[in-house]
Every structure is written in structure tokens, then in C-alpha cells.
């Protein structure tokens, strides 16, 4: 489902997803509509704008947080012009995964956007690097302080949704080096062995939760 007050953007995203074989069960223009649609359709993913009627401040993000409370595990992909820190952290740290936050002005490739949609719907994460930078700038201490600069760099790329192979290519290092960094990250954050994907999501959420 899509929650976006701009009718042109709302219909544009709907059409784009339809072209990729992704069905939209509801398209609404405010937070109340989002909550109603989630309760009625129990969608596989909610794509949400931050600022919607009536005050155009943070209604969309607050509604998304509430929707995840009412439907635990609901994947949410925020698609916005703004980084709203307070509710962004609450959303990103409030579940086991299935969260994304992309800035509209930085979504330049349709294929990458569709990949983000599918990744978040499947329970993964996809966080814009500018969103990460603004949230990390809050500067509160957390277990991330235990990581080396390279490990934080690797974890930042994990937050963007990159695989180990893609991280190795981005940093121009070997796959083995990345695997070692990822293992160190899990150990320093106290993430006990489970499924690899689940630990990656938990590590990313720790990275984004500054307290």
C-alpha cells in the first residue's frame, strides 16, 4: 500500500510498481487512511511519506510507527524529502527488520527503487546513506563505539542493503576481508549466532539506534 499526499507521485509509484508486477492494494493521502488500509488489507509492505495532512509535519511517519505497533512486523519503506529524526529512530529500531528510509531526491534509478521495495518487503533493510549520516550525527554513545572505523564503514554499507560481495567491491577489498569484518561486528555488538540475514538486520538496527 502507498501513503502519499501528492497525487502525481502516488499514482506514479503505483504505476511503476504495477509495471514490475507488484500489486497495490490501497493508495491513500493521509495518516488515518494509512492505518485504515493497514487494518483492512494487512499489506506486505507500506510505502509512506513523512509529511502529510493536516499539518504536513510528521503525520506519515507517526502513522507508520503506530501501524507497526498494530501489525507487528509490517514492512515499512519511508520515501520522503526529509529526515524526521525522532520517529525515524523509533521506526527503524522498533522491529526485527523490514524497514527502509529513502530520500526522494536521491532515488534516481527505477531498478534500485524496485530492488529496495522487494528487499524491505522481504524483511531486509534499505537506508539512504544521507539518512544514516543525519541519524549518526546525533552523537549518543552506543555499542557502535566499539567498532573500528573500517567496521563502521562496512556496517554503514550493510545498512544500505549491500551484500558482502557488493561491500567488497565498493571498498576494493576481498570477500574474505569483508566476512571477517562482519564477524567482528556481530561479536562486538553481542549478536549471538542465528540466521545470517537476521543478524545483519539486528546489526543495522543497532547502528541506527543511538540510544
Question: How would you explain this protein's 3D organization?
Answer:
The protein is an alpha/beta fold and 211 residues long. It folds into two domains: 2-136, Rossmann fold (3-Layer(aba) Sandwich), CATH 3.40.50; 143-208, Arc Repressor Mutant, subunit A, CATH 1.10.10. 52% of the residues lie in helices and 9% in strands. It has ten helices and six strands, in the order βαβαβαβαβαβααααα. It has helices at 7-19, 31-41, 59-70, 85-92, 110-121, 129-136, 149-159, 164-171, 175-188, 196-208, and strands at residues 2-3, 27-28, 46-48, 76-80, 99-103, 125-127. The chain has a six-stranded parallel β-sheet with strand order 2-1-3-4-5-6, with helices on both faces. Strand 3 (46-48), helix 3 (59-70) and strand 4 (76-80) form a beta-alpha-beta unit. The chain is globular and about 45 Å long. The two termini are 31 Å apart.
Amino acid at each position: 500500500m502507498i501513503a502519499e499526499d501528492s497525487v502525481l507521485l502516488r499514482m506514479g509509484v503505483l504505476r511503476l510498481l504495477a509495471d514490475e508486477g507488484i500489486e497495490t492494494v490501497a493508495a491513500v493521502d493521509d495518516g488515518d487512511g494509512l492505518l485504515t488500509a493497514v487494518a483492512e488489507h494487512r499489506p506486505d509492505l507500506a510505502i509512506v511519506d513523512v509529511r502529510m495532512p493536516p499539518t504536513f509535519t510528521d503525520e506519515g511517519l507517526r502513522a507508520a510507527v503506530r501501524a507497526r505497533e498494530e501489525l507487528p512486523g509490517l514492512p515499512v519503506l519511508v520515501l520522503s524529502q526529509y529526515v524526521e529524526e525522532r520517529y525515524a529512530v523509533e521506526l527503524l529500531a522498533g522491529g526485527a527488520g523490514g524497514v527502509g528510509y529513502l530520500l526522494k531526491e536521491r532515488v534516481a534509478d527505477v531498478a534500485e527503487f524496485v530492488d529496495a521495495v522487494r528487499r524491505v518487503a522481504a524483511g531486509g533493510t534499505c537506508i539512504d546513506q544521507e539518512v544514516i549520516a543525519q541519524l549518526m550525527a546525533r552523537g549518543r554513545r552506543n555499542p557502535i563505539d566499539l567498532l573500528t572505523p573500517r567496521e563502521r564503514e562496512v556496517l554503514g554499507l550493510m545498512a544500505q542493503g549491500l551484500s558482502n560481495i557488493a561491500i567488497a567491491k565498493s571498498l576494493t577489498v576481498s570477500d574474505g576481508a569483508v566476512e571477517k569484518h562482519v564477524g567482528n561486528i556481530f561479536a562486538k555488538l553481542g549478536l549471538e549466532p542465528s540466521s545470517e540475514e537476521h543478524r545483519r538486520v539486528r546489526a543495522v538496527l543497532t547502528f541506527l539506534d543511538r540510544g
